[in-house]
Amino acid sequence: MKRFVWALSMTAVLAGCASGVKLDDVPVVDKSGTSVGAGGAGAAGSTQSAVTSVDLSAQNQSAAGPNSGRIVYFDFDSYSVRPDDQAVIDANARYLKANSARKAVVEGHTDERGGREYNLALGQKRSEAVRRSLTLLGVSDAQVEAVSFGKEKPAATGSDEASMAKNRRAEITYR
Known about the structure:
Strand content: 5-15%
Low-confidence stretches: 37-46, 57-62
Distance between the termini: 71 Å
CATH superfamily of the domain at 68-174: OmpA-like domain
Mean pLDDT: 81
Shape: elongated
CATH class of the domain at 68-174: Alpha Beta
Oligomer: single chain
Largest sheet: 4 strands, mixed
Structural class: alpha+beta
Number of strands: 4
């Protein structure tokens, strides 16, 4: 009787694992980028390009943001904004309030000490501290996003204190 129940349960398990999807019947689509025929992108006779030129110099100039700086530095194992970096936050807040269509990303960074998860969490707290400071100064919450890179994008390589101090930062970038 035990063998019969065991065989029945194994049959039920195998039947439950069966799938009705036929993997061999998936259609093949050619995405190689070759011409698509008459009237398509690669058709003969279409000499005029639909691509318009972009002036990157004007875009980069407007993407720069305020000239007073975009980096806020932090002490070791801290996410408190230092009083000497408050001027940077003030200038960026004035810029964002004056340009309400602009959006900014605050990227939190750490030095190389600490584990990966710890550094990601600390970088997030640093970026959130700067974002919160900006919103307290009147910047719309929808204009600022906070992200963390942890120790993945160091500003300075090296294991001395000066290099690590440059890596403990939050950078404000504009989009």
